[in-house]
Amino acid sequence: MIAVLAGGTIALLAGCKPVGPNYNKPGFTAPDTYKETGAPSITPPPNPINGSWKPASPSDGMLRGNWWEVYNDPQLNKLEERIATNNQQLKQAMENYLAVRDQITVVRADLFPRLSAGLGFTHYKQSGNKPLAAPGAHGNYNDLTIGGQATWEPDFWGKIRRQVESARESTQASAADLANVDLLLHSELASDYFQLRGLDSQVQVLKQTVADLEHQLDLTQRRLKGGVATDVDVAQAQTQLETVRAQLVDVGVARAQFEHAIGTLATYNLPDFSIPFSPLDLKLPQVPVGVPSQLLERRPDIASAERQTAAANARIGIAIAAYYPTISLNGTGGFEGTHGGTWLQGPSAFWSLGAQAAELLFDAGQRRALTDQARHQYEAQAAAYKNTIFNAFQDVEDNLSTLRILNEESAVEQRAVASAQHSYDLSNQRYKAGATSYLEVLTAEQALLTNQRTLTDLESRQFAASVQLIRALGGGWDTTQLPK
């Protein structure tokens, strides 16, 4: 009888529509193109590509999977691969996702009856002097019971189905949060790595400058002995040499910090971890940008905000369901006897079936307030979703403009370095010929070093901006990777 009743109720529920609004994704019209992909160059770059990216038609060369492999750096690849298996922050995000996913099963269980069973044995001894005791009644007897109970609240109004829907959308949002943590960790490691290699490029420049200045000091000391230079020239050469040596030592502070950050992200034991000296000599890859409408599917933070909006919409239905009656079904059955011989026989059977319906008649406006609250929370989350989209487009545009401007600045700085090198060579020749003082050589050398360090700094900033552009585009992720 319980099975027939439950089957009929389930069939009835299958045709019942859950109360509350069905979800429709908040509308957003993406622009046709990014502003920066068509921005004119202030200074024409040395190559025809306007920046280190290329516009792309849908799915044309889009980044997939291990996006850091576009840099063709085996050492970077090795470090990045450790994040997936060793990073504790990523593991924390994974466990948070799994905990949220379990909530679906917790909520979905309320769709089904709850069944319980029990076995009992009790021995009674009655008082022979109790009031109204029947003459000749036994003072000792056993009570053996075995039975079960079924209780069920059919989801006539869809409250539980809305709870399952909310839990499912929240789980997908948590999965997107996990993907976002993964993207941020990989991009942070790549950015730190390229900045470290940029510092190694500066070390290379400073070491070459130190070698040149040591040669200049030796030359000046020999000219002093020959009577064609002064003590002032030697002092200036010595000062310049020690100044550059101090700069070389100072670069080591930042390099050590980047090395520690990389080792921590890759979960190495820092005392045993080091990155060998490796100046930045890679070719900056072109990043496929795609079309703006793809950004809504490629950014995990946008996906998370959208799924949270869907979960907030389901919570409106949960609040509305409180206006409807609560209906519950219950049944019990089993066997009860005084000894084992008659315990499981037909006459020892017992059962009961029942139903209850309850409706809240007055709550001083609580249900209305909770429903209005759920609607406002949905509108707030929808606004947060759209705001996340706007910030994402700004993020992409910022990094596109950064790459474009750095590309132009690098072209100008290359010419500045070439000019400073030529000026230094001329000044050095004039000094050796006795046509000028050593101050002119020092000035030219300082200008050359400044421009060389600026150029190496620009190169590392270009790589860091390239990584940030990939991060802004969502890396190799898209919404098809969300759990179903």
From TrEMBL:
Superkingdom of this protein's organism: Bacteria
Tell me, what's a Pfam family for it? OEP
Q: Name one GO cellular component term.
A: plasma membrane
Just give the chief location class. Answer: membrane
* Localization annotation: Cell membrane
Under InterPro entries, the record lists: MdtP/NodT-like, OMP_efflux
**Which GO molecular function annotations are given, in alphabetical order?**
efflux transmembrane transporter activity
As for membrane topology, the entry says: Lipid-anchor
- Residues in coiled coil: 196-223
Keywords (A to Z) from UniProt: Coiled coil, Lipoprotein, Membrane, Palmitate, Transmembrane, Transmembrane beta strand
Query: Of which family is this protein a member?
Result: Belongs to the outer membrane factor (OMF) (TC 1.B.17) family.
What NCBIfam families does the database record attribute to this sequence? outer_NodT
Protein's UniProt name: Efflux transporter outer membrane subunit
